[in-house]
Amino acid sequence: MASEQTSVSANHNKLPVREAEVEQYIDRFLDTVCDTKRRAIVELLAISSLEEETPILEMRSGDIARAIGLSAATTSEHLRQLAQTGLLTSRRQGNTVYYSLCNHKLVQAFRDLLEALDTDYRNAGPQS
Fold first, then answer.
1. What is the distance between the alpha carbons of residues 110 and 35, in angstroms, rounded to a whole number?
2. Whole-prediction pTM
3. Whole-angstrom distance, CA of residue 78 vs CA of residue 87
4. What is the pLDDT of residues 67-90, one digit of tens each?
5. Mind giving me the DSSP string for 61-110?
């Protein structure tokens, strides 16, 4: 039993080795999507965007702001941060800016994580 615990402990002491730039990217991504309002934006745009037969959902920045209940300026900052992580892309048509998801693999992984967390919480109940 002691040798079994030693081997398990030894495995727990090994961290994945990544380049510093990859670590920074991961940290920036997680920091960005863990904000409640930015998470709401990703989920809003992901409603139909991940179904292969459905065209990519685009929304105007003003519509996104209204949907999540923030000012246009605050929403624009959240959209900028999401675009910097590579989750969103934008296109301008006249004075209107449209946003859509562009990294569907990361968005699907994030949705899977949210679903797993929701299921875990419902199964375990609230923890104090």
1. 13
2. 0.73
3. 12
4. 999 999 999 999 999 998 888 999
5. HHHHHHHHT--HHHHHHHHHHHHHTTSEEEEEETTEEEEEE--HHHHHHH
